[in-house]
Amino acid sequence: MQPHDLVRDHTVYACVMGSRAFGLATDASDTDRRGVFLAPTPLFWRFEKPPTRVEGPGEERFSWELERFCELALRGNPNVLECLHSPLVEHVADTGRELLSLRGAFLSRQAYDTFTRYALGQRRKLDADIRATGAPRWKHAMHLLRLLMSARDLLRTGELVIDVGERRERLLAVKRGEVPWAEAEAWMVRLAAEAERALRGSPLPPEPDHARVAAFLYRVRRTSALQAEPDHQVVQGVLGCAGRVGQG
Length: 248
Hints:
Blueprint (H helix, E strand, L loop, with lengths): L2 H8 E7 L1 H4 L9 E6 L15 E3 L5 E5 H9 L3 H7 L4 E4 L1 H8 L1 H4 L3 H24 L4 H20 L10 H8 L5 H20 L9 H18 L1 H19 L1
Parallel strand pairs: 2-4
Antiparallel strand pairs: 1-2, 1-5, 3-4
């Protein structure tokens, strides 16, 4: 089975991300699509394992295999966590609905470290742009501010909301370069400090619910194996023969 076939035939969840999901889209914005596919369990019984991620089919589309997606979400990866909270869902199967019902299991105070680490990496890139050209990439500055807002609000409320809502116009002003860098920089510093204060009183648990996610993944893999009835019967037959040989 080819990687694009896995995405086309076995996607359990698909959504739109990027500026359109954040409420920051303009006429020139691309449509970034993200998804999760469930590789059939029998594919893991081969030497060559199914891919953990696939680009395409089509432009601006990226998908993760379910297990890899869950691993990244448990680590608090911002891109993956935000994918689960997109307001623009394009496809959801039964397994996808189960995955969405687990959104809270992936959230924890560890998000402070992962969101902050990602934000610091973006800030270093902005500083490098300023040194090289005298100005930041304003689009990147806007998205860094959005990320810091998202992290702060998540830690304050325990809920991840990615649409910027009424903050749209101010953020777009940053993207257009209408906000002086000193003002944008001060805004970033303030948001980072607010996120740190929110961490101390956050309603989020210290760690994500690994056991709940592991039980979900085991159940899904087992169901997939049993649904592959011909392969399953072969495996059962081989095991039965092995048992009889052992008895002999």
